[in-house]
Automatic annotation (TrEMBL):
Family as reported in the entry's similarity comment: Belongs to the isocitrate and isopropylmalate dehydrogenases family.
Protein name: Probable isocitrate/isopropylmalate dehydrogenase
Organism lineage: Eukaryota, Fungi, Dikarya, Ascomycota, Pezizomycotina
Gene3D superfamilies in UniProt: Isopropylmalate Dehydrogenase
Pfam families cross-referenced by the UniProt entry: Iso_dh
InterPro entries reported in the protein's UniProt record: ICDH/IPMDH, IsoPropMal-DH-like_dom
Residue ranges annotated for the Isopropylmalate dehydrogenase-like domain, each copy included: 7-342
PANTHER family xref list: D-MALATE DEHYDROGENASE [DECARBOXYLATING] (PTHR43275), DEHYDROGENASE, PUTATIVE (AFU_ORTHOLOGUE AFUA_1G04150)-RELATED (PTHR43275:SF2)
């Protein structure tokens, strides 16, 4: 029973990213020291907007070779007030996700004890499909007849692999429910193929109870009947919107984690909070670190350290329950207070 020694690329990047990632590193190092069942080493990678301003690019030229030298990446957020969002997003996050084939973007959602949902507890766990295929262009720039196209590309292989991933995830959960989000009434090519492949794949998963929802009706169901949901799969654009709604329903975007997975495990996966750079609170020390703690817990689980994941999540629950909450959850604690409390709770629970 040998002790694993993990090497993690830490990419805090912009805004509150460095604040929440350093908090998560502190907590994970505490976990490793306390449990002594694994070792973990974080290497700081300085990609982000400062790097872009110095080097003219968001990431190193051999980004893939660099990341393949690690077991996983822990990412903060990218985006700065003085750089257009499509430049920063494509420059960093999408420069990693696409080439590394991190096609499954998993975003679990829950309401923590001691925190409040604007509704009842929304236990939806959703899965998001990476579809930034990015076909399109602009012509006649500046003319009255300027034209732009944004074409979504749907491939059988792309749809089938995310459907299989979603059905597999649903089959592994106690309730075994899956909702396939679509818009095939108005988008009658790509999303009709999407629906057809859902039916095909479902035949291999007889234990999963699944249904299909139009994305607009899905917003109503998430608000009015969240307990009818378990696993949700949809296209990237739809799930980008629905997962923010789910996070808000669960209490705050400040607790929502995400995993960008290569389910084949050929490439290292990337873990990050759902939220962005949060310019309005950057540098104030009030960012909620829980989304990044939970992302780090998902990372540990993906690496095979299930016990570490469980202990970290128990510690976060305990701290929430004790009312040590940041402002977004109605509390007055600072990032460092929550971090310290989670470290102490890890020690206490161990
Ligand atoms: P945002 O998630 O940064 O902020 C939305 C609201 O939620 C703000 O009021 C913010 O203060 C609050 N918030 C976010 N995280 C929080 C936390 N941990 N604790 C407490 N409050 C928190 O989204 P916004 O304002 O749309 O985007 C800001 C920048 O971030 C943009 O440049 C955008 O492109 C980028 N972004 C990057 C993402 C990524 O790196 N994956 C994801 C979303 C946005
Ligand atoms: Mg988003």
């Amino acid at each position: 029973n040998k002790t694993h020694n993990y090497r993690i690329a830490s990419i805090p990047a912009d805004g509150i990213g460095p604040e929440v990632v350093s908090a998560a590193i502190e907590v994970v190092e505490k976990l490793a020291q306390t449990m002594k069942t694994f070792k973990i080493e974080f290497t700081h990678i300085p990609w982000g907007t400062d790097y872009y301003k110095k080097h003219g690019r968001y990431v190193d030229e051999n980004v893939l070779d660099v990341l393949r030298g690690y077991d996983a990446s822990l990412f903060g957020s990218v985006g700065a007030p003085d750089v257009p969002d499509h430049v920063s997003l494509w420059g960093l996050l999408l420069a990693i996700r696409g080439p590394l084939q991190l096609y499954a973007n998993v975003r679990p959602v829950r309401t923590f004890p001691g925190t409040q949902s604007p509704l009842r507890s929304a236990k939806a766990s959703d899965i998001d499909w990476l579809l930034y295929a990015g076909h399109g262009g602009r012509s006649h720039v500046g003319q009255p007849w300027e034209t732009a196209t944004e074409v979504a590309i749907f491939t059988r292989i792309g749809i089938e692999r995310i459907m299989r991933f979603a059905f597999t995830a649903a089959a592994a959960r106690p309730r075994k429910l899956l909702t396939v989000v679509t818009k095939s009434n108005s988008l009658r090519h790509g999303l009709v193929l999407w629906d057809e492949i859902a039916v095909e794949v479902s035949k291999d998963f007889p234990t999963v109870k699944w249904d299909k929802m139009l994305v607009d009706a899905m917003t109503i169901r998430m608000v009015q009947n969240p307990s009818s949901l378990d696993v949700i799969v949809g296209t990237n654009l739809h799930m980008d919107i629905l997962s923010d709604l789910a996070a808000a329903l669960a209490g705050s975007i400040g607790v929502a984690p995400s995993s960008n997975l290569d389910p084949t495990r050929r490439n290292p996966s990337l873990f990050e909070p759902v939220h962005g750079s949060a310019f309005d609170i950057t540098g104030k020390g009030v960012a909620n670190p829980v989304a990044t703690f939970w992302s780090a817990a998902e990372m540990l689980g993906w690496l095979g350290e299930e016990d570490a994941k469980e202990l970290l999540m128990k510690a976060v629950e305990g701290v929430c329950e004790a009312g040590i909450l940041t402002k977004d959850l109605g509390g007055a604690a600072m990032t460092k207070d929550v971090t310290k409390a989670v470290c102490e709770e890890i020690e206490r629970l161990h």
